[in-house]
Structure formats: C-alpha cells, structure tokens
C-alpha cells in the first residue's frame, strides 16, 4: 500500500478545525487528521506492506524546464522554489514525519521528484502483490492496471468515508476512456489542469479529450494522425495542435508519472517496522494529539 502523504495531510488540514493546538499553541489539526486517517486505512485495508511516499521536491526542475508555468501560481518564494503553504500547516509536517517514524511506517522519497513519481515507481516495480494507492489526487489514476498485478487507486478526495476505488474498468466508466491507466495521462495532457499551471490544448475540454483518446487509442496515435493530415482528426483539432505544438511536445513529460525514479527509503522492504509505543505516547503528550494516536497505536498493534 502506497500513501500519497502530502495529499492526505493537506486534506486533513482543511478537514479538521485549526482550533486543535498543542499546549504551546502550535496547530496540530493536520497531524490529528492524518494520524486518524492512517489508523482507519490500516484497520480497514490491513496492508501487509505500507509506504508513506513523500515529496522531496514539490516542483521538480525537469518539469519546470519543460513547462515553466507548472505550479507557478503556488510559488511563495521564487528564489528558493518554496511552495505557498498555509503558515499553520508548515510546522505540522515535521511532527507527521516524527510520528510515522515512531510508528515504524516506511517512508520513501526521490531527490528531484514528487511523491507521485515515488508512487509510480514503486507501483511499476511490484510484480507479485496487489497495490493500493491512497490519494486525493486524480493524477495518479494513470497508475492503475491489471497486469502483471493489480494496481488500484483508493481515491479519498471527499474523505475516507466517501472513498472510491478506481481501476481500469472504473476509469473507462467514469471518463469514457480505454480501460488503461495511460489513457488518463493522455487525456490530461489535452485537457490541461489549471490548478497545476497546465493550459491544455486550446478548445479541448475533458469530454473532447476523452473522445479523441478513445477514438485513436493513445495520444501518440492521435498526434501522428493529425501530423499526417488525417481527415479522421477534426480540422479544428489539427489547427489547435499546430497552435500549441510546443506545449503538446513537452506536456507528456510533465503530466506522466515517472516510473524509474531513484528511491531513498527508511526501510528496505516496506514491511512494518517496530512500533515504538513509548515514543508515540511522548509525541501524543507533547503535541496533545488526543485519541488519534490511540487509534493509530491500536491499528498498528492489533493481532
């Protein structure tokens, strides 16, 4: 099981009131929400191996070099490539890392890459056991597959209780795409994503993008047909491709999740490590984390 950690703690931050603070006034709402969600995940899904995937670089240089607008609207400090994050969330991230470490949960990252790339790489490497990706980020829908082992996204954009499990079939049903994860990435290139600073192809929205990918089977086949002047590609689409040729050439590098990132992990095998209950209790007391840590300890130590 792969946790998209930043996605989960961002959602916890906005779901749990900021009035929850430590004895010295440090907000801990994201920590509490994150710990509680991880406890629920472990209790309900019983993963044999679990990795909390982290952002080593939230805005990787290779993506920015391809498309400079990538996540540009979220930059708080351009000189240091610092992400604009709520002031009350920033001090909570180290607490979350400490708690994961005390809980014996493996953490993994890759220098110069986002957590999405860590997830994509670990999912692609797995050849035997089913993989579940826990995230609130639809970008990871591109990772789903049935072979050589199943990869599913457990999407928690509306919270854990309203989670939906996405595989190739669900992807096809939801978006009208071919039942293969790469089709989602192809559609996303055409559609764009304003929240990530990706403009997409002029005049092509999600439904049109899905129809085109379904008709031609892949983005590359569509681009090749358009370049050949095929009448199967509507004239306005061919014109849009010519107008946005630079974006079309570079966007796949930005949109597609890396599957061969060099991973640095806190454990060699993703197997649960020793749960340091005393240390978890100390963190619980220091930061006033309440019952969320109780639930996490119970989930981790259940027979």
Automatic annotation (TrEMBL):
SMART domains referenced in this protein's UniProt entry, alphabetically: 53EXOc, HhH2
One of the Pfam families matching this protein, by short name: 5_3_exonuc
SUPFAM superfamilies reported for this sequence: 5' to 3' exonuclease, C-terminal subdomain, PIN domain-like
Domain 5'-3' exonuclease: 1-273
Coiled coil: none
UniProt key word Hydrolase: yes
InterPro entries cross-referenced by the UniProt entry: 5-3_exonucl_a-hlix_arch_N (IPR020046), 5-3_exonuclease (IPR002421), 5-3_exonuclease_C_sf (IPR036279), DNA_polI_H3TH (IPR020045), FEN (IPR038969), HhH2 (IPR008918), PIN-like_dom_sf (IPR029060)
GO biological process, one term: DNA replication, Okazaki fragment processing
MF terms in GO: 5'-3' exonuclease activity; 5'-flap endonuclease activity; DNA binding
Keywords for the protein's UniProt record, in alphabetical order: DNA-binding, Exonuclease, Hydrolase, Nuclease
PANTHER family for the chain: 5'-3' EXONUCLEASE FAMILY PROTEIN, FLAP ENDONUCLEASE XNI
Function: 5'-3' exonuclease acting preferentially on double-stranded DNA.
The protein's name in its UniProt record: 5'-3' exonuclease
Organism: Actinokineospora fastidiosa
């Amino acid at each position: 099981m792969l946790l998209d950690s930043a996605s989960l703690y961002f959602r916890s931050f906005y779901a749990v009131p900021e009035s929850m603070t430590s004895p010295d006034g440090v907000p801990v709402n994201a920590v509490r929400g994150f710990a509680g969600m991880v406890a629920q995940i472990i209790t309900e899904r019983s993963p044999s191996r679990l990795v909390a995937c982290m952002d080593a670089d939230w805005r990787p240089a290779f993506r920015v070099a391809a498309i400079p607008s990538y996540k540009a609207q979220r930059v708080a400090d351009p000189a240091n490539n610092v992400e604009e994050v709520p002031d009350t969330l920033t001090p909570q991230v180290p607490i979350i890392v400490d708690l994961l470490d005390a809980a014996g949960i493996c953490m993994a990252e890759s220098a110069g890459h986002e957590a999405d790339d860590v997830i994509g790489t670990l999912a692609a490497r797995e050849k035997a056991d089913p993989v579940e990706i826990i995230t609130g980020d639809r970008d990871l829908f591109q990772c789903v597959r049935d072979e050589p082992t199943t990869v599913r996204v457990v999407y928690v954009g509306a919270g854990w209780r309203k989670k939906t499990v996405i595989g190739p079939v669900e992807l096809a049903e939801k978006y009208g795409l071919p039942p293969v994860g790469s089709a989602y990435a192809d559609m996303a290139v055409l559609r764009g994503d304003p929240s990530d600073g990706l403009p997409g192809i002029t005049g092509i929205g999600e439904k049109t993008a899905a129809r085109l990918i379904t008709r031609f089977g892949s983005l590359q086949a569509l681009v090749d047909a358009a370049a050949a002047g095929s009448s199967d590609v509507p004239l306005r689409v061919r014109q849009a491709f010519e107008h946005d040729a630079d974006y079309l050439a570079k966007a796949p590098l930005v949109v597609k999740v890396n599957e061969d990132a060099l991973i640095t992990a806190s454990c060699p095998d993703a197997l649960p490590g020793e749960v340091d209950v005393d240390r978890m209790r100390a963190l619980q007391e220091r930061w006033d984390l309440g019952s969320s840590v109780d639930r996490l300890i119970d989930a981790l130590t259940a027979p």
